[in-house]
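Weekly puzzle thread! Below is a chain. First person to post its structure in token form gets bragging rights.
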Amino acid sequence: MSNRGNVLIVVLLVFTITISLLFDFIRRVYLFINITENYKISETMSVVLKSGYTYATEQLKEYLKRLDYTDKGSQTIEDRADDVLISAIITDSNSKFNVNTLVYQNGSINNRNYQIFRRLLNILKLDEAYADKLVDYIDFDNVRRTSDGEINSKNYFLFSLSELGYIFNAEDLEKIKPYLTCIGDGMINVNTAEKELLMALHNDISEELANRIIDKRTEGPFKTKGEFINVAGMNVIGINISDIITVKSSSFIVNLTASKDDFREVVEAGFELSGGQVKTRYWKEY
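Winning reply:
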């Protein structure tokens, strides 16, 4: 092969390598730009989510200031900021059973709430042994209430309902999760609680009586506990459970979603209203 041919081959090789390096450089620059843009969008959406949370909680706070009761189990707020659509679904936590109230702050068992939880499981046709497993998971000792009760136990209160995955199988958790929370004072709002939870509050609250309660509050929310106790059939029962019920909620969960083009970020936050202030109990980003 002539020297000219060798030179041509070398030139072609250098050209090929140069083109390859150029394309690799362009690809890296493109990826860097995309990552940078995605980061900017993510940061924008994060700021919008935090602003949306503040807006939603303040709106709720102002709304509840005007009322002596809470009669909405959930409500949705939507807004748009900087081309980002934000949706906030606020759910009343006092309409649910707080699983952390199964155990007192000193670590001892709250037998009353334990019985309520067992009744709820029974009403939902779930194994009542879940109550003992959950108590074992939360309580501060290592004494087993069931054979596998203390396995992987936390021996402390739940921060999130996702921890219930250690206790329930997936199918049963899906059934009971809508009735549960892990924040709040444990009071049950009789204006917003589902029928099954109303029935679980007392042995003598039948399905018929629970339906009567729901019919009554549909006509107009209970503004006082007295109005609830005056429902036919609730005179004695209502007095017995008056210390665990309320007509106005103070704890809530908000699910926030921020969307822009193909990007989507989700946050779940639990908060309480106390003394006119919003107290965030947890903030979980997905």
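Puzzle host: Confirmed. Bonus trivia for everyone else. The chain is about 45% helix and 20% strand.
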